[in-house]
Amino acid sequence: MRCESKRRFLLLYATQKGQAKAIAEEIWQQAGAHGFEADIHCISEMDKYNLETEKDPVVIVISTTGTGDPPDTARKFVKKIQDKTLPPDHFVHLQYGLLGLGDSEYMFFCNGGRIVDRRLQELGAQHFYDTGLADDCVGLELVVDPWIDGLWLALKETLQLQEEKEGMNNAVNPVSSSLSTAPHAVHELKLSSEVQNLKLEDEGARGSDTLSQKADDISIVAPARDTKPSLVHSVPPVSQSALNIPALPPEYIEVEFQDTQGENPHLSSLISEGTTFEVPVTKAVQLTREDAIKTALLLELDIADATFEYQPGDAFCIICPNNVSEVEELLDILGLSEKGDDFICVKVKQGTKKKGASRPQHIPERSTLKFILTWCLEIRAIPKKAFLRALVECTSDVGEKRRLQELCSRQGASDYTHFIRDSNVCLLDLLHAFPSCKPSLSLLIEHLPKLQARSYSVSSSNLYQPGRLCFVFNVLEFPACPSRPVSRKGVCTGWLAELVAPLLHPSKNSLGTKGESSLIEKISLFPRPNNAFHLPGDPSVPFIMVGPGTGVSPFIGFLQHRQKLREHHTDWEFGETWLFFGCRHQDRDYLFKQLLCFLENGTLTHLKVCFSRDSSTAEVAPPKYVQDLLRICAKEVARVLLKERGYFYVCGDKKHMAEDVSDAVVDILSMEMEADRLEAMKVLAMLRESKRYLQDVWT
């Protein structure tokens, strides 16, 4: 493609954790090589662009957060376009293509992108390119890569048609395929050979910016003797292929070590979500037996001196550090063990080719090196392909360099998914696997995302325990595997377990009783209210709770709250309450025997429990899972939902439970309504829409 001047399009991104921004930047980097100039902005920077007057095509990359919300950076934009006074032709002049990012493990897949897409359509905007919906559950790149490939063809045609309409008959080669060919191919993930074989045609482009590299541009190393591929070894055809690798991201961060001393920033300065509170841990209890498969802990926090308000069903976020030993290990590999406590200054590199480069908001301008690696960067993050591409340049061994190229290439997409993404490989794993790779500190700051605060459901009621907040969690375990030679605990749950170990196992010299100690540890947190997952506003409305394992956690708060309401308002009418709880073993991980107390005092009307791993000698096998219990109680479940307009709450694991519960409810509705499954699914959809079927789930 040759053109005297590069043709402009507007590129907007809305990101929560940096994924959408990274993809938008990849589009921006590729644009120049294809003869375009991308005017890139965060969608929140509404003073830097104006869709009301925009004449050029617009490309939007937007993620989804929570249970289906647009990211925080898109809130103002979404609020603006959802103004009901806007006429239906408000954006009739606008042509756009949208790439939505999401995770199909969650109910409202890519809902952030769908909200924006649907509203732009309602206001008259037109697609110049079909919407792409990328699924993080199977790998964003499966949609992102071909979507970007097809984008250039669609942009070329759109701008050509625009020029023809304006009478600007420039010498642009006509494109024979119809406008809809590439978009539909991308949307259905059935790429035409034309899109699959898109190659860079600009002979003047520099090699480091090219999307495609020919065989003689990349050293092809003789395949290892291993007959099966692994993180460090490839087999044909990948090992013998010419590779299409991403463009090399431009460097933009500079790090200076300083001799001066000082203090690190307060943790609250790292959080943009609102007010943070530092509160003491007053109690810790292990709810599971030592021989249980998972270790579940209950922690109690003292919030009496914090202006922290919550309702049962709300969540909150804990600001947690990376594992100390992993930080020390990373410093050692980087050759910076002696400089961990030195202060560094982080700033934008002069002359960088990255447009709009700025110091990442989560990186303080001045702090110790150890502070940044401990509190600011997600060193456990799965490396993106752009990061792998940058690591290639830091690797001296020819074989290791080739393998990293393969893992970030189009041809090595399957290997990337299997050996990096699905294996939860992190930077440390890569540096051990490829020992000649020696990245700079500035490269890590450029590519590692922000260390995210971890979200937990409240497991208490402020009516029942004033000034206290409780929560329950499993200590996550990630066993060793071929791509990750060491086992690890969860970043936050592992840290919390270590933090409260003195409370769980007080020494003989301690004055405290079990679960309490004279040693007081504090954690920093901030509220994350849930707009829907609350008790019904009308106490006379019945409700059903389904919460196996630690999924029962928010329902303890529900029942504590309901018990106090019953005590304080003896003249109120209260609807019946159902709880379906399950765990592996009755004697090892039945988390809350307190449930029986709620049953005895009438707060809980019906308690149904099951134990999936306990053996039974009964003639009829007992139910193993909560969905089995629901089917046994089918008539009562249907009565509560259909006749009494009750509520249905589900909390717990999305992948192994929530979908099975949803299927069970559909079966129950179908059977009790004497309707086909499709009709039952429509009823369930209406329950979701009216906020009477509510989920608090995780993957």
From TrEMBL:
| PROSITE patterns the UniProt entry points to | FAD_FR (PS51384), FLAVODOXIN_LIKE (PS50902)
Q: In terms of domain of life, where is this protein from?
A: Eukaryota
InterPro entries attached to this UniProt entry: CysJ-like_FAD-binding, FAD-bd_FR_type, Flavdoxin-like, Flavodoxin/NO_synth, Flavoprot_Pyr_Nucl_cyt_Rdtase, Flavoprotein-like_sf, FNR_nucleotide-bd, NADPH_Cyt_P450_Rdtase_alpha
Question: Does Zinc-finger appear among the keywords?
Answer: no
Q: Which cofactor does it need?
A: FMN; FAD
- Please write the reaction equations for the catalytic activity of this protein: 2 cob(II)alamin + A + 2 H2O + 2 H(+) = 2 aquacob(III)alamin + AH2
Record key words, sorted? Amino-acid biosynthesis, Cytoplasm, FAD, Flavoprotein, FMN, Methionine biosynthesis, NADP, Oxidoreductase, Phosphoprotein, S-adenosyl-L-methionine
Any one GO molecular-function label of the UniProt entry: [methionine synthase] reductase (NADPH) activity
Ranges for domain FAD-binding FR-type: 274-536
Q: Where in the cell is it found?
A: Cytoplasm
E.C. number:
1.16.1.8
GO CC terms of this entry: cytosol
Q: Residue ranges of the Flavodoxin-like domain? A: 9-152
Q: Name one GO biological process term.
A: methionine biosynthetic process
A Pfam family reported for this protein in Swiss-Prot or TrEMBL: Flavodoxin_1
Q: How does it assemble?
A: Forms a multiprotein complex with MMACHC, MMADHC and MTR.
Quote the protein name from its UniProt record. Methionine synthase reductase
Which organism is the protein's source? Answer: Toxostoma redivivum
- Phylogenetic placement of the source organism: Eukaryota, Metazoa, Chordata, Craniata, Vertebrata
